[in-house]
Each structure stands twice: as C-alpha cells, then as structure tokens.
Amino acid sequence: MFERFTKDARAVVAGAVEHAEEAGAGSVDAEHLLLALLDREGSRASFALAALGLAEREDAVRQALGEARRRAGLSQADTEALAGLGIDVSEIIARVEEAHGAGAMAGDRGGRGRWSGRRPFGKGAKETLEKALRIAVARRDRHIGDEHILLALTVRPGVSGEVLADHGVTHESVTRVLYGGGGAAKAG
C-alpha cells in the first residue's frame, strides 16, 4: 500500500514514527499521525488545516492530545461515558499519578533505549491508513496523499477525530476546503 503514498503522505507516516519514538510509545497511533500532520508545511493537508484556522490553535490541539495521553488515550466521550457509570477518570488518574508519578498512565517509556527496530503501528493508525486508502479510491485519486490521512482522521472515532472536531476540523469542512462545495461522498 505504501507505494501508492505521495511524498507528503510518506513524510506524515515517518513523522508519526518519530513522534512515537520521542514519546517513548510502544506503537505508532492515530494521534501520532495527527501530530505529524500538524508538523507539515506546503502540503494539501497543511493547506486545509491552515484554511480552517487550525494554525492559530495548534498549541491547543497538541495540549488536548497530551491530556488524552495522560488519560491513557481515553477520549472525552469515553470519559463522559465512564462518568455516567460512576467512574471518575480524573480521580483514577490522580491516584495512579500519586502512586507512580506524573504521566504514569500515558504509557510513555521515558526514553528510546527500550525499543529496538521499528515500532509497530497500532490499531488506530492502521485503521486510519486503511481508511485513507478507501477515501482515495472513492475519490478516484491515483495516490494517497496527506489530505486523505487527514480526512480519515476526521471520520475515525477516537481522540484524534474528537480533538479535530472540537477545533472545527470535520470531514465536511476539510472536504469543502479541498474539493469545494462539500458535495463529495464519504468513503465507507
């Protein structure tokens, strides 16, 4: 599948691996793909993000991703669902961090030494890249670009999609910016 990726999409994947390594994460996840997209300049996805005003809110996006990592990757929707069951995620985080230190639930390993070789891609990152392929095919695009990765993140449930939506970046808004009109069909 990677032979169909554009230079920009390959750079996003490589950047996601770097973000995972810097965080000491055990695998590359969808959130790492989003962080790598935020790093890009001069690509279709970076154009869409800038047009939607995310450049001014990039720090807030990175902070929201960090907060989700601190919650062990739980989205706000997950946190609210657990609260409905009487489970206070904030209290759990406080107790775990009191016993094991700040960021204990984040899964960060605090260094690169533990891992050798390439980090595996987690379920979320794999699903995002597969969805990017389906979006490109549905649009009859010959190659998978970083814009397809961005579109895939907007439709995939979880932290990345939630954080993007919270900042006004939805499948519809990205489609409108990239292709005009917003009349493009979603890929299934």
TrEMBL record:
Q: Does the keyword Transmembrane apply?
A: no
What are the protein's UniProt keywords? Repeat
SUPFAM superfamilies (alphabetical): Double Clp-N motif (SSF81923)
Any one Pfam family here would be Clp_N
What Gene3D superfamilies does the entry give?
A: Clp, N-terminal domain
Cited InterPro entries = Clp_N_dom_sf, Clp_R_N
The UniProt record lists the Clp R domain at 2-188
Q: Does the keyword Lipid metabolism apply?
A: no
Output this protein's name. Peptidase
- Organism expressing this protein natively: Streptomyces griseorubiginosus
| Top-level taxonomy | Bacteria, Bacillati, Actinomycetota, Actinomycetes, Kitasatosporales
